[in-house]
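Lab meeting prep.
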Amino acid sequence: MSDHYINYNMELETDGNARLMDIIKSVGKDEELIITMEGNDAEKSKHILKILENNGFEVLPKGGHEDNQYHLVARKRMH
């Protein structure tokens, strides 16, 4: 089991989405994908949530109060 991490820069959406799709393919059933972005970009994360959900992931959003970071913790759904 290993975790996969992405620091997502909303200004680079095209590159970020391509990287996200590449990593999604490599995430196993007992692994987590943790996506971090600036707290100010949390509102813009809806398209990331949709991509993850459409690819069989459950997503738990977490806000970092001390570091102004927003995290999406995703795990593959059990079928």
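Slide two material, second protein:
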Amino acid sequence: MNLRSFSIRRFLLLSFIFNLPPILAITKIGLLFLPLLFWANIPVLWTGIATAMGNTHFEIKEFGALPQTVSAYAIIITFCLLIAALITLIASKTKSE
């Protein structure tokens, strides 16, 4: 991997976009239930992390898994950062070729 081809700007923009629902939820902007639900449930339920970590970290209800602890939020944020890094790496490799 060529470090020069890794675009920090692209990574930061993608990280901001992927983590936008909790940022907007902190600012109390309305109509955020569905994006925040997708933000939490896509990495947690589709990968099985919620069932692996148990009920102490995630409360699984009708609408999906709700994070209960700081480590649960950290796992979701880490997942979003890994996806942003993966997209940035793929985009930088296709651009350099």
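Talking points for slide two:
Strands lie at 58-61, 64-67.
The radius of gyration is 15 Å.
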